[in-house]
Amino acid sequence: MFRFALTGLLLMASFTSCATTATADLPTTPEMMALEPLVGHWRGTAEFLVVPESMAEMLQPGPDGEYPELGGRNSTCFGLNGTVLIQEGWHEMGEGADESHYLQITRWDAEAGNYHSWYFSNIGEIGESTMTIDPATRTFTMTSFGTRPDGTEFSGSGSMTFVTDDQIDWTWTEDNGLEMQ
């Protein structure tokens, strides 16, 4: 089961680092404060439920034909005087493949009434997403689109639900058939 905060990246590391965030970076709006449960250092794993043929080579199944669980970590903090949430981390890409390191920046979009994120990775993947929160169920629901390192486009949707303050259950499905949790 994938238990990992929304994996993401920072547009430029010079904005801030989660290790050096000052109290001046705490959010002052209720919309940004709603993201506070995501702040911290997270680690998790992903289990692949369905892997489309187009991604099989990149994810590299084991000798038994099964796809191994992949791990990762991220750090999440507020930045720019609490106006953005910054996530930076890494995740495995399969046996023999390099790790993917990423940055994600999320902000409240008052006009759209949701959160908007931008994602960048060292392997050339870029993406954008929107997200809403259901405070009653502690569930974050997102839709994304972007470009993979090989230039193909993707879109997907998923959700994260806090099971406890330090455990998130996560699901993700893409338009190409990829499903993971």
Measured as a percent range, the helix fraction is under 10%
Number of helices: 2
Question: How does the helix and strand content classify structurally?
Answer: mainly beta
What global shape is seen? globular
Strand order of the largest sheet: 1-3-4-5-6-7-8-9-10-11-2
Main β-sheet description: 11 strands, antiparallel
Brief account:
The protein is mostly beta strands and 181 residues long. The chain is built from 2 helices and 11 strands.
Features:
disordered N terminus; mainly beta; globular
Architecture overview:
It is a single chain. With about 180 residues, this protein is mainly beta. Helix content is about 5%, strand content about 50%. The protein is built from two helices and eleven strands. It has helices spanning about 30-35, 55-60, and strands at about 40-45, 50, 70-80, 85-90, 100-110, 115-120, 125-135, 140-145, 155-165, 165-175, 180. An eleven-stranded antiparallel β-sheet has the order 1-3-4-5-6-7-8-9-10-11-2, with no helix packed on it.
What is the element layout, followed by pairings?
Blueprint: H1 30-33, E1 40-46, E2 48-50, H2 53-59, E3 70-79, E4 84-91, E5 100-109, E6 114-121, E7 126-134, E8 139-147, E9 153-164, E10 167-174, E11 179-180
Antiparallel strand pairs: 1-3, 2-11, 3-4, 4-5, 5-6, 6-7, 7-8, 8-9, 9-10, 10-11
